[in-house]
Each structure stands twice: as structure tokens, then as C-alpha cells.
Amino acid sequence: MSSSMAELKMVESSAADLTAAVVTVSDSCARGEREDLSGPAVAQLLLKLHFSITVREVVSDDSIQIQNVLIRLAHDVRFVVTTGGTGIAVRDVTPEATTAVCDRLLDGVAERMRSEGSRNTPFALLSRGVCGVRGRALILNLPGSPTGAVESLEAVVHLIPHALELLDGKTEHG
Amino acid sequence: MSSSMAELKMVESSAADLTAAVVTVSDSCARGEREDLSGPAVAQLLLKLHFSITVREVVSDDSIQIQNVLIRLAHDVRFVVTTGGTGIAVRDVTPEATTAVCDRLLDGVAERMRSEGSRNTPFALLSRGVCGVRGRALILNLPGSPTGAVESLEAVVHLIPHALELLDGKTEHG
Amino acid sequence: MSSSMAELKMVESSAADLTAAVVTVSDSCARGEREDLSGPAVAQLLLKLHFSITVREVVSDDSIQIQNVLIRLAHDVRFVVTTGGTGIAVRDVTPEATTAVCDRLLDGVAERMRSEGSRNTPFALLSRGVCGVRGRALILNLPGSPTGAVESLEAVVHLIPHALELLDGKTEHG
Fold first, then answer.
1. Per the structure, how many domains does chain B have?
2. Is the residue at B138 inside a domain?
3. ipTM score of the complex?
4. Taking CB atoms and an 8 Å limit, are A89 and B166 in contact across chains?
5. Less CB within 10 Å around the terminal CB: N or C of chain A?
């Protein structure tokens, strides 16, 4: 979409500190039984949009492990992106782990990922990924499939630089 | 809509165990003062979509009673559908009762019922119905009016067989 | 939009008691350092739609102060509208304060404000404003900018008279 391209250009022109980390949440990737395709795909898109990726990590579908990684990364970078663990199976716990470490959630970001995603696949509506604020960092959950992760990120990434500026206290209305 | 018809066909071709129960939540229906039109309408649509209805029940707008019915039915069937009690009046407690017995909620399903419903009546936005997972079962809250119940179900029923497969552990991405 | 105009006309023909209060949530307005433009803009729109404004107040971005104002006003009027404090900065606490004093939330109203708002500005998706019920009153959070506040109110105000009737117990389906 041309409007989407225009929105993505907004990312490039931001003055915010666009440090980012990418976390792949997957038991099989963590065990080395499966190649992580989503993490690199997400990182590639972020680099293209002029985010600087400081780290990529792979973690099991374990709530405590996920929380620890998010706490550590949210201290070091402004934008922490996860991929995986957003589904409805019992072992999918990324949204719960993210909610546990966030100060507040931005429901509108999750709503937009789902509604945009459902244009490509109706099952995007089943994704439970959240977006939240922890300190001065944003944490965003993307689905586990490479295509779903990239499409979800594209649907909302234009909001991130402005959101980071707001977290820096750059507001217009008091 | 033709796209809707295509989506409904997806339901028919699913390999999942499509057992379903329909629960009418209504004080007046439970007292026998009003004919239950919504329960039969929902059951008829589910049958047409090749779900097998194992039971239909009528329960008062009482949170504990609703919870007990949902717990029992979610043990026996894969898809428990309620109709009624999703409004904003004090006695409308179906969403709270459902949330209380669910392991996790699928916000995207509720969002879609509201946004699709609002095309027919703006007041669909006031519906508070939720969709959640309890064990291997899905529980879905529909509004109390026959038309609203059927339209809301039609808006999301194509997601159910895939969701049930995911609950069975049939996932592509680990 | 013509459909929007039709919906706004629905407000005018309602039989509900359309008493309203407008609360501006802003540290700088409360200190008198900034002129409150949003409160008057919201009040003007409500008057045009035949709501009777009983009071306008200005309060700091302080959760306890906001809660106390909302509790008091929800006792006196049917529709309490706030403007400001819905963003993602640390001092934005209006949604949390509103949630704390509400019996239940109407997620569909917040969803619609965000999705409609994002047609004008993508950053509307970052708004965390909620709509909730307290007793027989509705409380609605609008963003802090005059334009954002008016646009958000226009997106959902047609739902208010019907919602107030439902809170009065005027339901069709039991």
C-alpha cells in the first residue's frame, strides 16, 4: 500500500534513539532443533527502517525466562520486539510474560496488528500479542511465523518513533 | 458477502472435533416467561456449519450459575456458545462469569464481533461479550437478541475449527 | 461524513436524561499556565447535541484527584467526559483513574475512538482512553488535544443516549 510506504518513511525521519533488540521465543529454536527464520526477518526489517539492532536473542517458551530477558533488554534499548509464543496453545505465554513486566499496555497497537493481519489471514485475529511500556522502552509481541511477524511489525512500526518521543516527555498537551 | 461464505465453508472442511453446546443466559427464559428464540437460532446455524450440538441449556443471569454451566460444558464439548447477558445493565454478567472460568481470553475475536456487528447496528459496540479458552474448549459470548447472536457468530465462526486444532497442539511454529 | 451526521441526529432525538459534565485533566491547565481549549470545545459539541452541561472542572494529572472528581460527578450527572491524560507518558493516568472508579468497561467504545481517530492521525492508536459505567453514569476519556478530543467524541457520542437508556433498565432482551 502506498499509505503504508508513507507511514514507513515516517520512521526514517525520526529524531528518536532507535535502538532495538529482537527476541525469538521458541522452545525448538532454543534447543537448536529449528532454524530461527523470524528473528532475522524482523531484524532485517528494523534495520531497513533505520533502527539499530543491538542484540538478537533466542529464549524458550518459559514465562520467567522471557520476563528476565525483557527486563534486561528494556533497560538497554528503547524498542524490544519479540516473535513467537502469542498463540492460544498452553505453552504460548509471551503476552502474559510481557504484561507482567510492563507498566502499561497500549491496546490500540495490538488491535491494529490483529485487524491489519486479518486482511492477509483471518487467523491473525487469534494472536494475543500485546504492546506495552516498560520505563522508557516499548515492548512489542509479534507472531511466530516469519510472514506474520513481518506483516504485524509493518502494521504498527510507524507508531514507534513518536511513542518513544512521548516516553521521553516530548508532549504537546499538558 | 461472498468472502463470508468462503470463510464459512472453511468450517465445513475442518477435521477438528466440532462438538458444541449452546447456553441461553436469561432470567425471563429461565423462568419460562419468555420463549428462547436465540438459543435455537444459534444452534441451527451451528448445525448448518456441521457442528454437532450435544446440549442446549437455559440459565439465569446469575454469575455462579453461569460459571457452573460453563465449567461442566467445557469439560464435555469443544465449543461452548452463550447468548445473552453481554449488555451494560447491572444484571448482565455473562462476560465476567466467562472470564472467571477461562484460562485466557482472545481479544481479537471479541473485537471482530463488535466491529462487524456495528455495520448492522452501531450499538453492537456496546456488547461486552468475550471469547476465551478453558482447557481444550473455546467459550464464546454472543448478544441476547436472535439477530445479534447469529450475526456475531457468523462474524467469527470461521476461526473456531483452526483455534480448536491449535488447542490440540497442532501448531506450525514452535 | 453523512453517516456520521445521521448518527449524531440520533443523539438529538433521545428521550434520556442527557446531563453531562466535562473534566479537563491537565497539570498546566490546573496551575493556570495554559488556557484550557479542549474542555470548552468538548462542552460546545455536547451542547450542540442537546446535552445539558452542568459543570466544567479542571484537575491535575493526579490519580486520586481524578478519581474523586469522577466519583462526585458520576453521582450528579449521567455522562462524565474527561479530556487529557490518556497518552503514554508517566504522568498520563486518566485511564487508570477511570478504570479504578468504574463498575465495568465498554471496550468497544475505546476501540472505535482509536480506529476512527487513526483515520485522521495514526497516533490515535496510542491513546489509552477508556469508557466505563459507574452506577447509572457513563464516563468517557478523550485525548488532550482539542481536535483529538472533539473527533473522538464525535466517533462514539451517538452510542451514549442508548447506553444511558440501557443503564436505566430499558432493555429489550431478558
1. 1
2. yes
3. 0.90
4. yes
5. N
